[in-house]
Amino acid sequence: MEFSLFGKAIASGQFLITAEVAPPRGSDVSQMLHQAKALKGYVHGINITDSSRAVLGMSPVVASWLIQQELGIETICQLACRDRNRIALQGDLLGAWALGIRNILALTGDPVKAGDQTTARPVFEYESVRLLQLIAKFNQGLDANDKPLPEGGTNFFKGAAIDPQSGSWSGLQRRFERKLAAGAEFFQSQLITDFERLDKFMHVLGNPSQKPILAGIFLLKSAKNAIFINKYVPGVNIPESIIMRLANAPEPLKAGIAIAAEQVKAAQQLCQGVHLMAVKTEHLIPQILQQAGIAKVELVS
């Protein structure tokens, strides 16, 4: 069986860099490919979102395949339980493996009411832990009913999301430990602004797990952008000091790049990598990494 290049980068002990790219909200993939191309050589993998915030987007399996085929960049395909029952989840996993996708980020999914299709019927037969357990079965050649997959299994490298800034420490610990038990091999965090909280998480939970934790770093483009995120993205609390820094900057976007670079440097002292999010401005991620003093990544074949 083939093994994930991202998994090999983890095994080699490199500081890990991933970035997020959203599939298009239509059939034209040119802009997605343009943004992803700018990341080549700067990341170990590109996360392809699955209708994030319950906003309609192209299939992440198809978008992942296109990026790998057209650009030769390994992807981390996000798969959410919100829109699929177990039959659909299994079908997408088998299709993803057949298309050469080797990394899956298992997600529960944002609530339908948060998105642009508010009358859609949510599924949620599974959530992220049960999806991780399903992928583990697939990797053993078994389906959801523990029956053999007659035409062969998979060998996915599977990850999960984590929120070190969660308001409930006991809830955070319980979910993290359940995802570990379900076989998560890496974790990507939600947007991080409280690095003291991340430090506590790493000392108490992250480092003892011996699994890589990638801190979520978001490129804030303006004070207005930061205020919007605080209002509409659950669990995020961008400090007033950052909002004021953006508001007072002659060029807010440059200030946002500088803030993100500082956060990457802070994360380097605490965890095993960063996951960068720069919605519709992914081409600026290399600037963030350069300001943080990070050279191009070394890919392990």
Characterize the structure shown.
The protein has one domain: TIM Barrel. β1, α2 and β2 form a beta-alpha-beta unit. Helix content is about 40%, strand content about 15%. The mean pLDDT is about 95. It has helices at about 5-10, 30-35, 60-70, 85-100, 130-140, 170-180, 195-210, 225-230, 240-250, 250-270, 285-290; strands at about 15-20, 45-50, 75-80, 105, 155-160, 185-190, 215-220, 275. The longest helix is centred in the C-terminal third of the chain and has 17 residues, at about 250-270. It has about 300 residues and is of the alpha/beta class.
Report helical residue fraction.
Answer: 40-55%
| Shape estimate | globular
The CATH architecture category equals Alpha-Beta Barrel
- Trace the largest sheet across and list its strands: 1-2-3-4-5-6-7-8
CATH fold node name: TIM Barrel
Strand content: 5-15%
- Quantity of strands, as a count: 8
CATH top level class name: Alpha Beta
Mean pLDDT over all positions: 95
* Secondary-structure element series: HEHEHEHEHEHEHEHHHEH
Question: What's a concise summary of this model?
Answer:
With 301 residues, the chain is an alpha/beta fold. It has helices spanning 5-11, 30-37, 60-71, 86-98, 128-139, 169-181, 195-209, 223-232, 240-248, 252-268, 285-291, and strands spanning 16-21, 45-48, 75-80, 103-107, 157-162, 186-191, 213-218, 273-277. Helix 4 links the parallel strand 3 and strand 4 (103-107).
